[in-house]
Specification:
Elements lengths: L2 E3 L13 H4 L2 H15 L11 E10 L6 H7 L4 H7 L4 E2 L20 E6 L15 H10 L3 H21 L6 H8 L6 H5 L14 H4 L1 H16 L18 E12 L1 H23 L7 E2 L2 E11 L15 H5 L21 E6 L9 E2 L11 E6 L3 H5 L21 H13 L11 H5 L5 H11 L9 H18 L12 H5 L2 H27 L17 H9 L10 H9 L4 H4 L10 H40 L18 H14 L34 E2 L15 H4 L1
Helix pairs in contact: 4-14, 6-11, 10-11, 16-21, 23-24
Pfam family, one: T6SS_Tle1-like_cat
Protein name: DUF2235 domain-containing protein
InterPro entries: Tle1-like_cat (IPR018712)
Length: 714
């Protein structure tokens, strides 16, 4: 299959809720029509009327993305938006009842949809509060990801039980107990099938087999509970009410760490289904509850693992030991796309944070069969969404209809439906339809930018290199010392003070970064000829700087189409992302910090005034008692420093007067220079860099511009 830059988008995307607009006549009749026959329950007194298929949809949200929390800011992720148009029964208590499917729900009793909130957000079903230390660990290291995968596996079992017996097999309390007994990692997945006759036993195999044994217990309970509904060798069941199930079709979606979870979940679900088939003595197929399972589609938005210690640590000693693929998220097993699974992976063209390396679905740049990897302009959350309408001044529509993230949403929606996923936007509620609307101006702006791009197919590296170059050139044209600085742009003017503070502070850091880069380049001398990077995008900034130096002084300024696109549609993911603790990444926390700053400022002023009076009085009494020239002078009073700095002190005072966030400097981003303020993390993580991309192995980084053949990497 193909790796490519996204193609020009048709204006029909602005009417995604209309089947006649978003799909061609042939697609509606030949493709969707065929899938709909599988979805419908036959009616009448014929034998066919007693047979049906089940449809399961699993939706893994990204870090800090949470359907309920997003209600206030209208910043639902694209995974949550896709969940809205998958019909059928929801998992009880996860989401409010007002999110349930409404349209002819009696016709979708054989459809089940499962939503999994992102790590670093509340998910009480697994005991994750999404606050305090759990939130910090979730955001930094993916804490809670394994529990979410296991919970989803148990819901697949519950779905079958719910279809036949109208209640789950496993209660919420029992589910939480199971979460504490099962570990998901590569060693345990290997043992989901018994060892072959002469296979050597590995250390810890006895301990690692416990995961399989736990799954066997649960599956045996399922088989016993639905025994009268399970098919015999001829496909018939003793009890045909509500129906005889022919096949279970499964679709899976994920964004960011949710995409990582989706990939691991797919592999574990296949292992569980293979185990079920062995228990049911069915060879050559995968089953669940004895029913054959087929996987329709895997839809991924910008996979970022960062599980455990990740690429945040760069080239430090720890950074070389850990790469964000800990536990359940290893690259060469759990994150691989199994053969034959249709998959679409949308990749963010302009994400550059060191903490957000990409895990390509390719293996040494070769895509698995039936898989596509499409590069989409924008940063991480411009693909998966999560930005609020108007955030950073991007967008004017209060409902977010002019946001760039709507385009990858609809692109994924189309691909999924054409692959057989039973998404039904045309029958979803009006709120769900509103969340799919995209303005024609946004489509026009993207297409105008795409027309300037030269590399459209080939290696992921070649496409990403051009996109990275385009972004750096745009940013250079908006540096503070340019004639058209970022601060003079219309989008900056529209932004809130909170966003302006981050954007301006980050732009000031970029200016310092440029000065350091140009000083390094000048130090190379006039005879220096920069070379493209060799294989393996590493974290060594000098290699990346040399790559940038190949075009820094010769590349033309970006045109109006590029300037408009980045100015008004692409967010700055580094500006708001605060790696260093106690630096708020949202307005609510910033207001709390300003309250603390103002309180501290006032306390220190009061303390200094009181202490100054006391010392002055003591000085007066000393002089009176000993005489003015006695030499018994007290030390002058030294005022206590509030440690806010001039800018922080001014900001705190202004906040105290207005109650609003003032213009001020912010910090705490991934540092572009090493310092103890960054806890010793490796530096050079600013804007003059490329994104790190893994290709199926921890040690394989995509950088070669040569397209390898399958024979070369076999």
């Amino acid at each position: 299959m193909t790796i490519k830059l996204i193609e020009r988008i048709p204006v029909s995307y602005s009417a995604a809720h209309s089947l006649n607009d978003i799909f061609s006549d042939r697609e509606r009749q030949d493709v969707l029509g065929g899938y709909e026959k599988l979805e419908r329950c036959p009616k009448g007194n014929t034998a066919a009327a007693c047979k049906t298929n089940l449809f399961f949809g699993f939706f893994f949200d990204g870090t800090k993305n949470n359907y309920i929390r997003a209600e206030a800011g209208k910043n639902h992720s694209n995974v949550a938006r896709l969940y809205d148009c998958f019909p059928g029964l929801s998992t009880p208590t996860v989401l409010p009842e007002n999110t349930d499917w409404i349209h002819k729900k009696e016709e979708y009793s054989h459809f089940f949809r499962v939503y999994i909130p992102g790590v670093a957000s509340p998910f009480e079903q697994i005991g994750d509060s999404g606050t305090g230390l759990q939130e910090t660990r979730g955001a930094a290291a993916g804490y809670g990801g394994e529990g979410r995968i296991l919970w989803a596996l148990l819901q697949a079992i519950n779905n079958i039980h719910r279809y036949f017996l109208k209640k789950p097999l496993l209660s919420p309390d029992e589910t939480r107990s199971i979460l504490n007994r099962i570990v998901l990692d590569r060693a345990r997945r290997r043992l989901m099938q018994p060892r072959r006759q002469f296979e050597r036993e590995m250390p810890n195999d006895e301990q690692n087999e416990k995961t399989r044994l736990e799954f066997e217990k649960i599956l045996k309970r399922l088989h016993a509970a639905i025994a009268v509904h399970m098919p015999d060798k001829y496909g018939n069941a003793r009890q045909k009410d509500p129906a005889t199930v022919k096949k279970i079709f499964i679709s899976i979606f994920g964004f960011s760490r949710g995409a990582t979870q989706a990939r691991a979940f797919l592999n574990w679900l296949m292992s569980m289904c293979t185990l079920d088939a062995r228990m049911c003595k069915k060879e050559g197929v995968m089953t669940l509850g004895g029913f054959e399972v087929a996987f329709n589609f895997l839809g991924l938005f910008d996979t970022v693992a960062s599980v455990g210690l990740g690429n945040t640590l760069g080239n430090s000693l720890l950074g070389k030991m850990f790469d964000g693929h800990g536990g359940w998220a290893d690259t060469d097993d759990s994150l691989r796309i199994p053969p034959g699974i249709p998959c679409l992976h949308l990749v963010a063209a302009h994400e550059l944070r060191r903490s957000f390396p990409l895990d390509s679905i390719s293996v040494k740049q070769v895509l698995p069969p039936n898989c596509d990897e499409v590069v989409v302009p924008g940063v991480h959350s411009d693909l998966g969404c999560g930005y609020m309408p108007g955030e950073q001044g991007r967008g004017l529509d209060s409902m977010g209809g002019d946001m760039l993230s709507r385009i990858p949403l609809i692109y994924m929606y189309r691909a999924a439906r054409l692959a057989g996923v039973p998404l039904k936007l045309e029958f979803a509620n009006e709120v769900a339809k509103e969340r799919f609307k995209v303005a024609p101006e946004t489509i026009k702006a993207l297409n105008a930018y795409l027309a300037t791009c030269k590399v459209r197919t080939g290696t992921l590296t070649a496409i990403m290199r051009e996109q990275g170059k385009n972004q750096i050139l745009w940013r250079r044209s908006r540096r503070p010392t340019s004639k058209t600085p970022l601060e003079a742009s219309a989008s900056f003017g529209r932004a809130s003070n909170f966003d302006k503070n981050d954007l301006h502070s980050a732009n000031q850091e970029f200016e310092q970064e440029i000065c350091e880069f140009e000083e390094w380049l000048a130090g190379k001398g006039k005879g220096f000829k920069a070379k493209e990077q060799g294989p393996g995008f590493d974290n060594t900034h000098k290699n990346e700087w040399e790559e940038i130096a190949t075009w820094w002084n010769s590349a033309p300024q970006p045109g109006a189409e590029t300037l408009n696109f980045f100015d008004n549609y692409v967010h700055d993911s580094r500006a708001w992302f605060k790696l260093i603790p106690k630096n708020p990444d949202n307005e609510k926390d910033m207001i709390e910090k300003l309250k603390e700053m103002e309180s501290r400022r006032k306390r220190v002023i009061q303390f200094n005034e009181t202490e100054a009076k006391i010392v002055a009085e003591q000085q007066k009494n000393t002089r009176k008692y000993y005489g003015k020239n006695s030499g018994m002078e007290l030390q002058p009073f030294k005022p206590l420093d509030d440690e806010l700095g001039d800018d922080g002190r001014r900001a705190a005072e202004e906040f105290g007067r207005t109650g609003k966030i003032p213009r001020m400097k912010t910090k705490g981003r991934e540092p572009f220079d090493s310092s103890w303020a960054s806890y010793g993390l490796s530096g050079k993580a600013g804007y003059l860099r490329y994104r790190k991309v893994y290709s199926g192995y921890d040690s394989v980084l995509i950088s070669s511009n040569r397209q390898p053949t399958e024979e070369a990497v076999a």
